């Protein structure tokens, strides 16, 4: 049968490719010739419709200050930053630095500055809500003149471009001195360098309430492109109206136009970068950030829904407070807007611990509580409006149930000794309530003390942050994985992976981020190694159903973990789509409906790695080829000796001399590096 042949190359090599491959069904490249047969269907397998997706958790300010489009930092004084470190003689990590010196993680005024003659303080006597008890108090002295108010410096700046911005805030006046007064607010976008006002809107003059807060809303039509992102969002008043008054403010918010125009939605350029990749699913909300640094700090989905003023936020796992503005419903709408599948991580009764690696486990006889949390979450997602949580979802503006087909039990729960009983409780309970959902286990055989028995129909999520050669050596790892491990009915999800450091003679990944070994940004060599690993998944679609690079997003002003796939700042022109982004872009956009064996007629794998898919409807065959260049110095013991086509012998872990997984310490190891959010001292 004649088909069009498209070869997609990822190359880093100094040797030239011989010959042309386009339009030929056999080709020479660096001494290798292969044949692809689409007529012999015996080796064809259906490809996975879910091969490439997104892993997302709020890390590196990927959510707040990242894809969650809110431009105001510290908008509701929910909590502050902290840094953990090790102390000689003590196990685990300790809080070694805290933004709030007296109450670690407590509220701060970071990110805010006064305008004119005002005094700014935090106040807890006039809470906006139970969830948001701390507000900003603004005292305007009796002698004040001119413009008075305050401004926010954004997430290390604010991007100002021609578009409509949506602003809102809650305000309350202090009764004793606010008698027959009225107030006129102006909201504006300004340069933090020159004070120039780019755009502003003046609200109708009003008499503020003195008992309950009022929410004020405005749009700002902006027609200019600011020369840089050193801009602020200001809320100001006229001292002639407000001198001598005291006001309370909370939940100040500013949104640009968002992805698919969602209220409380996603930053457009970052969301579009994901869409452009052709991803098929979103795994959320973690990652470690699901589990919490204590049981109480776990991701409590029910505290992430409803009006923003009722969301307390939480201490995230990555050194900063999460607003939870990007909550469960927003994640589901994210999937809806991208037409991708939600893969929801449910809390499984294990939380990390700042003070050690051991963590906290729920006892077996209380697992029903943990299961109930997960069942409630699924009812919120899928229940009809006659159910408690389905009705709540309708009240939140989304009466139509979402479709949830994948649920993951915990995250890397092999860290805990108790996963066997927790997995059983969760699997049995979830399956009984939702027989059609595919349940993903976050552990299989990583813990030396047990192997999880994975029922047919489940998926194992395996995570790898490694050196390049590790991924190269795993090209054929999944070839006979199901048969070799007795998991014929089990799939695999390469749920988090990326090259973490350069190759070392020992092959042991050093998680202390030594600058001479650690890769701080994805490199071509990272992309190649990751791509070879992904090819191994593509040619085993019966086994490897899903994959996702991690972490995906990083605000360049704050990192917990590097490298990351996409880096960005407030300035949308500074977004960097890395080499690791582009290999996934190529792989996920060029997929077929059948994986097709490639038979080498001369030569062998290495330096070429390949897989091939047939797009029946388009009558095209896509051949993906990665070429390992001289920069990759293989560790001879780890080098794959692959010689044949699918199916291939399973590269047994026990006989491999590569580093054995797992050996990765977690939580305490990623050092937080951050630039300071601008201080609250105005520069003009
Ligand atoms: O991606 C960073 C972290 O790595 C994730 O939170 C966790 O699942 C893994 O250990």
From TrEMBL:
SMART domains: Alpha-L-AF_C (SM00813)
Family annotation (Pfam families): Alpha-L-AF_C (PF06964), ASD1_dom (PF22848)
Documented EC number(s): 3.2.1.55
Record's keyword terms, sorted: Glycoprotein, Hydrolase, Signal
UniProt keyword annotation of Signal present: yes
Top class in the EC scheme: hydrolase
GO biological process, one term: arabinan catabolic process
Pathway(s) per entry: Glycan metabolism; L-arabinan degradation
GO molecular function: alpha-L-arabinofuranosidase activity
Domain Alpha-L-arabinofuranosidase C-terminal per the UniProt entry, residue ranges: 495-668
Signal peptide annotation: 1-18
Reaction catalysis annotation: Hydrolysis of terminal non-reducing alpha-L-arabinofuranoside residues in alpha-L-arabinosides
Family: Belongs to the glycosyl hydrolase 51 family.
Record's protein name: non-reducing end alpha-L-arabinofuranosidase
């Amino acid at each position: 049968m004649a088909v069009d042949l498209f070869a997609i190359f990822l190359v880093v090599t100094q040797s030239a490719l011989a010959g042309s491959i386009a339009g030929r069904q056999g080709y020479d490249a660096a001494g290798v010739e292969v044949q692809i047969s689409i007529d012999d269907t015996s080796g064809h397998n259906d490809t996975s419709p879910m091969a490439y997706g997104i892993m997302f958790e709020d890390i590196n300010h990927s959510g707040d200050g990242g894809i969650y489009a809110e431009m105001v930092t510290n908008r509701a004084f929910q909590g502050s930053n902290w840094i953990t470190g090790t102390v000689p003689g003590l196990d685990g990590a300790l809080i070694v630095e805290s933004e709030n010196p007296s109450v670690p993680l407590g509220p701060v005024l970071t990110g805010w500055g006064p305008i004119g003659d005002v005094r700014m303080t935090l106040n807890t006597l006039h809470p906006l809500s139970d969830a948001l008890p701390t507000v900003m108090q603004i005292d305007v002295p009796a002698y004040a003149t001119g413009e008075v108010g305050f401004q926010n410096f954004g997430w290390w700046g604010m991007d100002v471009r021609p578009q409509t911005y949506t602003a809102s805030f809650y305000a309350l006046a202090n009764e004793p001195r606010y008698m027959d007064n009225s107030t006129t607010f102006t909201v504006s976008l300004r340069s933090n360098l020159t004070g120039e006002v780019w755009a502003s809107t003046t609200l109708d003059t009003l008499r503020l309430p003195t008992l309950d807060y009022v929410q004020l809303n405005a749009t700002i039509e902006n027609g200019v492109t600011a020369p840089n992102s050193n801009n602020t969002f200001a809320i100001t008043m006229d001292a002639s109206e407000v001198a001598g008054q005291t006001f309370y403010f909370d939940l100040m918010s500013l949104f640009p136009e968002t992805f698919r125009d969602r209220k409380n939605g996603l930053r457009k350029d970052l969301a579009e970068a994901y869409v452009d990749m052709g991803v098929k699913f979103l795994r959320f909300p973690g990652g470690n950030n699901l589990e919490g640094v204590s049981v109480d700090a776990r991701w409590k989905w029910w505290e992430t829904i409803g009006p923003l003023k009722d969301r307390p936020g939480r201490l995230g796992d990555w050194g900063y407070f999460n607003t939870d503005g990007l909550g469960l419903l927003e994640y589901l709408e994210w999937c809806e807007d991208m037409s991708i599948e939600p893969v929801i991580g449910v809390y499984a009764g294990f939380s990390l611990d700042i003070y050690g690696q051991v963590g906290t486990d729920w006892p077996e006889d209380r697992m029903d509580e943990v299961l109930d949390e997960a069942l409630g979450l699924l009812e919120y997602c899928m229940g009809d409006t006659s159910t408690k949580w389905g009705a709540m979802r309708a009240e939140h503006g989304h009466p139509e149930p979402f479709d949830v087909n994948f649920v993951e039990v915990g995250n890397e729960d092999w860290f805990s000794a108790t996963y066997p009983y927790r997995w059983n409780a969760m699997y049995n309970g979830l399956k009984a309530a939702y027989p059609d959902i595919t349940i993903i286990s976050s552990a299989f055989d990583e813990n030396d003390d047990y192997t999880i028995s994975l029922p047919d129909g489940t998926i194992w999520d395996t995570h790898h942050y490694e050196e390049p050669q590790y991924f190269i050596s795993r090209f054929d790892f999944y070839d006979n994985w199901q048969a070799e491990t007795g998991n014929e009915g089990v799939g695999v999800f390469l749920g988090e992976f990326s090259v973490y450091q350069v190759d070392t003679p020992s092959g042991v990944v050093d998680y202390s981020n030594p600058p001479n070994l650690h890769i701080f940004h994805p490199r071509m060599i990272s992309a190649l190694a990751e791509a070879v690993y992904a090819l191994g998944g593509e040619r085993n679609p019966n086994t490897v159903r899903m994959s996702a690079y991690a972490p995906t997003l990083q605000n360049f002003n704050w990192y917990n973990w590097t490298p990351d796939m996409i880096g960005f700042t407030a300035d949308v022109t500074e977004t960097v789509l890395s080499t690791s982004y582009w290999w996934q872009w190529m792989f996920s956009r060029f997929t077929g409906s059948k994986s097709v064996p490639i038979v080498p007629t001369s030569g062998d794998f290495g330096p070429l790695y390949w897989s091939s898919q047939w797009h029946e409807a388009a009558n095209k065959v896509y051949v993906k080829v990665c070429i390992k260049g001289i920069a990759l110095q293989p560790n001879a013991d780890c080098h794959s000796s692959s010689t044949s086509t699918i199916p291939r012998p399973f590269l047994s872990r026990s006989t491999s001399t590569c580093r054995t997984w797992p050996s990765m310490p977690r939580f305490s190891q990623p050092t937080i590096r951050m630039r300071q959010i601008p201080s609250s001292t105005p520069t003009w």
